Amino acid sequence: MIESGLERVIPAFRSVCGEDGVSLSEAVREQHGRDESVHRCCPPDVVVWPRSVEEVSALAKICHHHCLPIIPFGTGTGLEGGVGAVEGGVCFSLRNMDRVLDVHQEDFDVTVEPGVTRKALNSYLRDTGLWFPVDPGADASLCGMAATSASGTNAVRYGTMRENVLNLEVVLADGTIIHTAGRGRRTRKTSAGYNLTNLFVGSEGTLGLITKTTLRLYGVPEAMVSAVCTFPSVQAAVDSTVQVLQAGVPIARIEFLDDVMIDACNRFNSLSYPVAPTLFLEFHGSEKSLEEQVTVTEEITRDNSGSDFNWARDAETRGRLWKARHDAWYAALALRPGCKAYSTDVCVPLSHLPQIIVETKEDLVLNRLTGPIAGHVGDGNFHCIMVMDPNDQDEVTRVQEFTERLARRALALDGTCTGEHGVGLGKRALLREEMGPMAIEVMQGLKATLDPKNLMNPGKVL
Amino acid sequence: MIESGLERVIPAFRSVCGEDGVSLSEAVREQHGRDESVHRCCPPDVVVWPRSVEEVSALAKICHHHCLPIIPFGTGTGLEGGVGAVEGGVCFSLRNMDRVLDVHQEDFDVTVEPGVTRKALNSYLRDTGLWFPVDPGADASLCGMAATSASGTNAVRYGTMRENVLNLEVVLADGTIIHTAGRGRRTRKTSAGYNLTNLFVGSEGTLGLITKTTLRLYGVPEAMVSAVCTFPSVQAAVDSTVQVLQAGVPIARIEFLDDVMIDACNRFNSLSYPVAPTLFLEFHGSEKSLEEQVTVTEEITRDNSGSDFNWARDAETRGRLWKARHDAWYAALALRPGCKAYSTDVCVPLSHLPQIIVETKEDLVLNRLTGPIAGHVGDGNFHCIMVMDPNDQDEVTRVQEFTERLARRALALDGTCTGEHGVGLGKRALLREEMGPMAIEVMQGLKATLDPKNLMNPGKVL
Fold first, then answer.
1. In B247-352, where does DSSP find H-type helix?
2. Looking at domain A223-330, does it have CATH number 3.30.70.2190?
């Protein structure tokens, strides 16, 4: 594309964001051992680094005029190839817009620009007694998390991005700036018109560029305690989860790791957990309420033949415990040095979890694949971290076939092909199966209305 | 319209739902003293009572072919004129579709048809240990509640319909049937494609007819306790609310009533609450957790000069206490026998509540209007129940001007012109001010895509 005329447009980009704000042919890629055989790296033709919404709008207008694809880029930590420039075009790296705006302590809300990551926000909030709990693992940009409808370990208690975004500033494909709930609005609820906020949350950059997001905040819990508990079977771990939720325990995190994942974590972090289905738990609340939450949960896990709890009370021990969970990706990679990984993502109703996990583990063995399982079991959401040799075409094919079978297994159990990673490049065909042709047609209609030239992150989702 | 050719279409309606399923010129109206001078009753030309989604689809196809407006009707309890047939047309009364389908106890979900009201569902669930908490006061149809994005007294703890609808079956204007999250899907979270579910939640019948909704359920709390507490000022009541939320108390209900409202409740229900700003509170949880929630809340209210709590522990006393709150509408009406009422609805960030309530009370006095205030203070949402003589045109005009000033006051404080009643007929101009012209254009684009002939509930929202 560069050769065929994009260079004529570059001066216009430079007039908006200066010499340093435009870079030619620089691949924007994520390098954490992610497997390019699943989502090939597709560098854009140009990268621009706007510093304000006005610059984003001006740049979008240029792209719109010249019919150039626009690829929004936050931190590049997404897992379904969402930032790949499959048709070339202009990558909008938003990292230079990194201000935390308008913390309203009494109203429990904050507005952030797209360069602000979740860790940066929580550092910023440290002295306010407030925090933002949605935690997808990676230190993703909050606007990127809104774009992909991210969630993670705390969602069982605090919800996903869908429940926690109050307003978005969005630049549409033609450069128009809108505020999905009206400019500056930040009420905890509203019935005013169509819910544009949740149309853009999870749209993966295909409907517009998110340049600001207003988020709900929460009071930092008075106390937290974490625990690890081992089970004789997947069924016992899941039964415990269902019963804990039925008992109304407001559990903050309830994470499942299968025997293979635990074994990998043990090796990677020099730990010695029993190699068995395991739950990592975390409780938030007052000291008194923690006591009760823990008592009820312990009773339930014991009734399901769970082990005694392995406790982590102080911040440091809790940090160590959760590091093991958060390092799952690297622990999985370390099982086969030199290999790459791809993390799958499906979600089913809770009661179907034991069946799908057992069947999936059989499938992995049968097809000689390495895929430790970790999941947000309180939401019915889990991942297989597929470790593979990218040079072994046969293995790569087996992984691709396996992930499709897994998604179809979820679909057959009233589930979804993605609970939190999104559709991106890889799950478009599965999305069609999940939604049916009529709902897909509705989605295509919405896309065509908001982006008639199909410039926003083309090739993704639909 | 009947005269101009609609009668040619009637046989087609009858062929779908039989002789008894079609009625000519029958006004479908709500008769609880609602003021028609604010939203005039506009009867449709025809009412149809389909018994299945297939009949809804077949009837919609006939309307689409003949360009007849379609007005979905649940229980008619909406407050912003949403069921008025302002351009005539066909009212789809969905009360004959009244099955509760597929209760999944382990997964905490249920699917209902549009004739099922929230009270009917909770009766049905009585022996399951589960309940659906969203409670807008009226015994509304659950699909209607989805259509209007309803909420009410429990939203501070359990969220609104936006957070509690997992999937919808929708018939579009041309008769196409879609499932917003894919047929039969009911996962607690998903990132699969655009969030169609929350596009239809709150669309007030202008994008399609909701023929099924899948809802999240909750475990019935082990214990509940309610209390009433009186304050020297609005500020003290609101400060208490903010501090209770900051302290992380998972309060289930925190309702504000101003002195005028309390006075009305006292008269209507022969009660003797002090005539002052008052909070009605409810706590849900285990016995132990209630104890702690109550202790923390009492400390906070005392620090803000609140009275001692007036307790309601057993179900009967709690019922009596909340009856007073739920009877607010009738208590307000009883202030001026022979008058009618209109309930306003705005929502602001919590910290702005004292200012807007104080200014609004001054406005009421200045303009000689009767408008007791009741609100879901934990969400920043409140109502003035405007009691007026419908034959006094001057008073009606003053009410209309007052409600617009109130909405604009909310807009000036980062708020919304409607927290839960919706836009309907009355707030279209305010919605434009709230959203700005560009966001309205986006909404119009979405409407035109899904309903190009503008047949779905025309004249509402946009």
1. 259-269, 287-303, 315-326, 328-334
2. yes
DSSP for residue B307: P
The reply to whether domains A100-219 and A223-330 share a CATH topology is no
ipTM surpasses cut 0.85: yes
Domains of chain A, residue spans: 6-93, 100-219, 223-330
- Interval B96-113: pLDDT, tens: 999 999 999 999 999 999
Shortest CB distance from A435 goes to which of B182, B218, B442? B182
What tokens were used for B398? 């003053």
Which sign does the torsion angle of CA A411, A414, A419, A423 carry? positive
Closest CA to A329 of A35, A22, A4: A35
Taking CB atoms and an 8 Å limit, are B187 and A348 in contact across chains? yes
Mean pLDDT of A296-325: 91
- Worst-scoring range by mean pLDDT, A253-257, A274-278, A331-335, B28-32? B28-32
- Domain A100-219 annotated CATH 1.20.1300.10: no
Euclidean distance between CA atoms A115 and A93, whole angstroms: 9
Q: The dihedral of CA B291, B296, B299, B304: what is its sign?
A: negative
The fraction of chain A above a pLDDT of 90, given in percent, is 85
Closest Cα in chain B, distance from residue A154 (Å): 13
Provide the percentage of residues in chain A whose pLDDT is more than 70.
96
Q: Which of B106, B188, B445 sits opposite A449 (nearest CB)?
A: B445
Query: What is the per-residue pLDDT for A36?
Result: 60
The class level of CATH for B223-325 reads alpha beta
**A204, A457 Cβ separation under 8 angstroms:** yes
